[in-house]
Write a structure and sequence with these properties.
Blueprint lengths: L1 E4 L1 H9 L2 H16 L9 E2 L7 E4 L4 E8 L2 E9 L3
Parallel strand pairs: 1-5
Antiparallel strand pairs: 2-3, 3-4, 4-5
C-alpha cells in the first residue's frame, strides 16, 4: 500500500507537537505492515462511510480513506474526550 497526504493532513501534521509527529510515523509504519496492529485500534469512523480512524497515541488520532491500494491520509487531530 502507498500513502497519499492531503494538504489538510500535511498542515495538521506540521502543526502537531514533535512527540505526536514522531508517534505518527511509528504508527503509520504499523499501518503499512499490518493494518490490524493492536496499537492502531483502526476502525471505521462513525458517521462517515469511507473514513477510517486510527490511534497515534492516547490523545491523538489520524483519519484516512482506503482507495484502491492507497491510504489517503485526511487529517490528524487531538482526540476529543
Amino acid at each position: 500500500m502507498d500513502l497519499i497526504f492531503s494538504e489538510r493532513f500535511d498542515r495538521s501534521l506540521r502543526q502537531a507537537p514533535a512527540a505526536v509527529q514522531r508517534a505518527f510515523w511509528k504508527q503509520v509504519g504499523f499501518l503499512l505492515s499490518n493494518s490490524n496492529h493492536p496499537s492502531l485500534r483502526a476502525k471505521k469512523y462513525q458517521g462517515a462511510d469511507d473514513v477510517w480512524q486510527a490511534r497515534v497515541n492516547r490523545d491523538w488520532r489520524f483519519y484516512f480513506r482506503i482507495i484502491d491500494d492507497k491510504y489517503c491520509l485526511v487529517d490528524i487531530t487531538a482526540h476529543p474526550k
